[in-house]
């Protein structure tokens, strides 16, 4: 995967530089994306979300403005991409997997994540290293967005791994992609627990966070949320596992999420090393237990953060034992 580095003095510049460096990719992605409605309708429906977000996170609106100007794409179109699910009140079916392995020596977690999306999108993902406000974030980026809404790690050692969830409640509020961008720069789980409930959210993800020896998993919808905390191994896929199950929207892929979740839970106690975690992320079958997806909605990238050793691994093709894993140093972690 392409590695893109951005060093910026403010949010606008961070977006502008990213837009310049990915302009062709951004334009091609928007052209290839199958819009659920005409642009004029989408833009009109997106404006109430913009009004709310400007009041709470003006810095991220500046960042999207920079991205738009750097890539020479109208801001309104990029804003739609940041709230497309909320505008349509319908989530794209994404099947992501997040696995947190506690290290017995107390040195932190090794975290693995499969990003599953439409098979054609693979070429529009990249590794972004963004330094801003004396903080560095490395994440799996996606064209059209200031934040990939995938998996990231910042210089404080905080990890965020996102899983899509499917719920029935929506409201005018801050899009989940913007919430993810905000969380990517947090340094404390306590700060997240204090500030997250104050946000008027338009929709929800499962935001899985970890720092040092703790995991905080936030299952959310537009109006509700639930915190899960643990210092043990943890896994999440694409269905609610807590009390928010009652607001879950039924969808045909739910059984696949359950099958994947149950398989990983059954073997997780045997997974202790990066190499075994790689094998688990690449585990492929023809039934619902398959962790690696190969159909229309497929695994477009696999990522591992080995926090104790400050190393990131990333792969986009599953070739079994011959899979090529990029290795990126995370020596900016303090």
From TrEMBL:
Highest taxon of source: Bacteria
Peptidase C45 hydrolase domain residues are: 103-318
Q: Which NCBIfam families match?
A: C45_proenzyme
Its name, as the record gives it, is: Peptidase C45 hydrolase domain-containing protein
Native source species:
Candidatus Roizmanbacteria bacterium RIFOXYD1_FULL_38_12
């Amino acid at each position: 995967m392409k590695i893109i580095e951005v060093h910026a003095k403010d949010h606008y510049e961070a977006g502008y530089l990213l837009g310049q460096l990915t302009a062709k990719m951004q334009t091609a992605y928007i052209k290839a994306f199958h819009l659920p409605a005409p642009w004029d309708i989408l833009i009109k429906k997106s404006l109430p979300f913009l009004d709310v977000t400007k009041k709470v996170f003006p810095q991220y609106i500046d960042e999207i403005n920079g991205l738009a100007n750097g890539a020479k794409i109208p801001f309104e179109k990029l804003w739609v991409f940041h709230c497309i699910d909320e505008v349509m009140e319908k989530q794209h079916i994404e099947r992501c997997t997040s696995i947190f392995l506690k290290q017995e020596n107390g040195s932190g977690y090794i975290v693995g994540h499969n990003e599953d999306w439409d098979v054609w999108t693979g070429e529009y993902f990249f590794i972004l290293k963004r330094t801003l406000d004396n903080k560095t974030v490395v994440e799996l980026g996606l064209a059209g967005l200031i934040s990939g809404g995938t998996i990231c790690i910042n210089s404080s050692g905080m990890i965020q791994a996102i899983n899509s969830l499917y719920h029935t409640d929506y409201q005018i509020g801050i899009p989940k992609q913007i919430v993810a961008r905000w969380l990517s720069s947090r340094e404390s789980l306590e700060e997240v627990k204090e500030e997250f409930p104050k946000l008027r959210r338009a929709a929800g993800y499962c935001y899985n966070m970890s720092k040092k020896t703790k995991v905080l998993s936030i299952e959310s919808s537009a109006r509700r949320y639930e915190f899960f905390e643990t210092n043990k191994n943890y896994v999440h896929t694409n269905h609610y596992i807590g009390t928010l199950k009652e607001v879950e929207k039924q969808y045909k892929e739910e059984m696949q999420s359950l099958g994947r979740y149950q398989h990983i839970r059954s073997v997780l106690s045997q997974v202790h090393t990066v190499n075994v975690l790689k094998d688990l992320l690449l585990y492929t079958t023809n039934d619902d237990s398959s962790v690696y997806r190969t159909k229309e909605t497929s695994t477009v990238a696999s990522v591992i953060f080995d926090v104790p050793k400050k190393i990131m691994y990333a792969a986009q093709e599953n070739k079994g034992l011959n899979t090529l894993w990029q290795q990126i140093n995370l020596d900016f972690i303090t």
